[in-house]
Amino acid sequence: MFNDIGPLELLTIVVIAVLVFGPDKLPKVIQDVMRTIRKIREFSESAKQDIRNELGPEFKDFEFEDLNPKTFIRKQLDNDELGLKEIRNGFDLKKEMAEVTDAVNSRDTEASSSSSPSSNSGSGGRVDMTKKPEEPGNDDRPPFDADAT
Fold first, then answer.
1. What is the pLDDT of residue 64?
2. pTM across the whole model
3. CA distances from 149 to 103, 144, 145, 146 (A)
4. pLDDT exceeds 50 at position 120
5. Residue 37: φ, ψ to 5°
6. How far apart are the first and last CA of the chain?
7. Residues 6 or more apart in contact with residue 59 via CB below 8 angstroms
8. Of 48, 64, 70, 80, which has the fewest beta carbons less than 10 angstroms from its beta carbon?
9. What InterPro entries does the record point to (predicted)?
């Protein structure tokens, strides 16, 4: 519950509690807080048990922690009834991307070898993705006028 509280923060809380409640009332306040936390835990466990009873015997293995999507997926991957580990281990993303890159580069070199040598202009068979593609016949468009819009 308080896993992320460090020693300095805990010391600060204790000092503030002593200053606010005083050393005489502090033990009673701690007992009251512990009693309240215990009652809240008992209430939550009772509510969980009531929900399990109402769901019936088919949900006897139901855990409320499974409602967390990360926990649910982790549990399903460990179960591996669908063969997901085999699929995940059989798929190599780097290999797939290398094949796609090789296919694109070979197609690009074929297209550049069939076109005129002046169109290559020393790009080394690579496509410049920063330049917009030139559209033939669109030179007759009027320039953009920001005031007209």
1. 78
2. 0.41
3. 44, 9, 7, 6
4. no
5. -65, -40
6. 58
7. 52
8. 70
9. TatA/B/E, TatB
